[in-house]
Design brief:
This protein has 205 residues and is α/β, with parallel strands linked by helices. Helices cover 39% and strands 22% of the residues. The chain has a six-stranded parallel beta sheet. Strand 3 (104-110), helix 7 and strand 4 form a beta-alpha-beta unit. Helix 3 (34-45) crosses helix 4. The structure holds S-adenosylmethionine. Residues 51, 62-63, 88-91, 109-112, 115, 138-140, 154-156, 159 line the site of S-adenosylmethionine. One of its GO terms (molecular function) is thiol S-methyltransferase activity.
Length: 205
């Protein structure tokens, strides 16, 4: 498995929603990040349906409203593996649609019914509709029948509880073909977060 751990700037820092060390850090420093507070509230009010509530209420500040620029670049430069791709925690599905092609079938997976509904609606007139599918399922229990050549994770890993990181790594390993590629944008781009980055690396190794 080849892995690209990348740095994701700006928006991601403000939207890291959960009880990660990072969110605790930002909570104690400042309480002005309103969308993050709302997300925290929704997730804590309902550990199972919190994400769905975020989507239902439109509290989705992480949503770029377009595909992740670096992913588009990799796609356009022919750098992405062909075959089967998975986008876990796909949200409104822009990344799924952006990289779907006759050579690459993409599965967009999200635990939120409302996210999947939104993704399905937004992509309904896409010309490459036969090259992708959206599924409502929990990444940690979902068992596909075929493995993937590429997994693209944008702000999914960083959204899960720190206790789930090693399960995330095991699932990624189990879902990828032996020569499959993982591309993940998980690190907020702030110098002071070096310790947090190191803790993530440690928990994944
Ligand atoms: C921070 S959002 C990122 C969404 C999307 N990748 C984007 O960039 O717009 C995290 C997403 O992961 C989804 N999610 C959270 N836990 C999940 C799980 N166990 N299985 C599948 N999706 C999950 C949430 O519903 C949410 O859409």
């Amino acid at each position: 498995m080849r892995t690209h751990l990348s740095t994701c700037y700006g928006l991601l820092f403000n939207t890291l929603p959960l009880a990660s060390p990072l969110s605790r850090l930002t909570m104690t420093r400042s309480n002005t990040s309103k969308p993050k507070d709302k997300i925290q509230q929704l997730l804590h009010s309902d550990p199972y349906g919190g994400w769905d509530k975020c989507w239902e209420k439109g509290v989705t500040p992480w949503d770029l409203g377009q595909p992740t620029p670096i992913l588009v670049h990799l796609h356009q430069t022919g750098t992405l593996p062909k075959g089967r791709s998975l986008v876990p925690g796909c949200g409104s599905g822009h990344d799924v649609v952006a990289i779907a092609s006759p050579e690459r079938f993409v599965v967009g997976l999200d635990v939120s019914e409302n996210a999947i509904r939104q993704a399905t609606k937004l992509s309904s007139s896409s010309k490459s509709a036969e090259n992708f599918v959206f599924l409502e399922a929990d990444f940690f229990s979902w068992r596909p029948t075929q493995l993937f050549d590429l997994i693209f994770d944008y702000t999914f890993f960083c959204a899960i509880e720190p206790e789930m990181r090693s399960r995330w790594a095991s699932r990624i390993r189990d879902l990828l073909k032996p020569d499959g590629e993982l591309i993940t944008l998980i690190f907020p781009g702030r110098e002071k977060l070096g310790r947090w980055k190191r803790s993530i690396c440690k928990s994944l190794l």
